[in-house]
Amino acid sequence: MKTIKHFLVLLVFLFPASKAFAQVEGASESRSGSFYSLFGVGYPTDNNNARELGLGIIGVSLDNMQSNSLQNPALWGRNSLSTASTGLNLSKYQASSQGATNANALLEVGYFQVTLPIVREKFGVSASMYSVTRSNYRFVTIDSTTASANNVVNYASDIRGAGGINKLEVGFGWSINKNISLGYAPSLTFISQNNSQDVFFNKSGFGTSNLDAKVTGTALGQRFGALLTFRNLLSSRDRISIGAEATLPITIDAKKTKTVKKIVGNQQQEVTLGTAQKGDVKLPLGLKGGITYYPSQLLNISAEGLYQGWGSYKSAFDPNTQLNMMSDRHKLGLGVGYHPYRTNSAKFLSNFRYSGGISYDSGHLTIRNHDINTLWFSAGLGIISPRSSSTVDLSIRYGLRGTTDNNLIREKIWAFNLSVNLSELMFFRKKLQ
Predict the structure, then answer these.
(1) Cα–Cα distance for residue pair 145/92, rounded to 1 Å
(2) Does position 275 have pLDDT exceeding 80, yes or no?
């Protein structure tokens, strides 16, 4: 049993990617995401709404007083309407190595946020829940091992991961004057991550084995935002917004528990392995910045960037930390949005908002001297309610992540995103005139 236990731990954290996919060719599609969410505490999530995703940007400088965003707390002080929004994401992953392919699909709710203008366009509050990292992976390996002389045992290993780090956040934004806005958002940050391995043997003398390892813990987080707005720079109708956001490092006081499930006779038994292991999970500093230029009310051009210091990530429970796989993450995006509905045209195509963009993400992993980067191409469509300021935004993105060099994995990603933003009519009844 001790030998099998050590083997399973090594399999999850050190198993070469090429070996895993060499055995999974033809595997059926399952509810899982990127293979690279296996490492650390999961793959970082950016929690953008579909409008921001359609532009290919982060959204830290995208100033819209009739909708909400998680990206910059300073924006909440400029809201003129009460809003509630959520997002739904559907992603299709086509992964390939040098000799095998696999397909995964993942449907998930991205975030939920409510913003209320306590003093309209002056002071507003936000309450939200969203993820920081996400683990969603699953793959099956088929192999054999020699138990003793002339005794070869075949086995199948089903390896799964779910969970990650999430935040429950309440914050405020304050528009000091027409040029300067500031924001602050404290949060309860909690980790709930589960890694499971089921091993099935082809010999009756070897029973099915299941190992679950779960990490849980909480901490308080903080982030700050700022927005500068200037008008009439090059013309009487233009506007420019400069946004910035900083997420402070967090140390989560966490614990890890391990349980094993075995079938003995016709009954399943669960055994806890030892006492819970306690330790820290240290999340890095994050910085965002960007600029959006509005030549007129019909057009916006945005360029934004992100930095996350994942090279300083530490975990008492993660052997990958010792393998130096984590690296600092940089992301750059450029997008253009067109708003023909503001022309009050009766043409059908003028009833929508259009956007497109491109972004490059260096990723937070460096494996076998290769950065696991992603190149995204994005397009978006906004549907504006004719009777209120509510919107439905759709985006479609195509991404290329990783590489097949040096026996690594390359992912082609199709991502469809839907965001619903319900504005003032949801909260207030208009008075009769």
Answers:
(1) 34
(2) yes
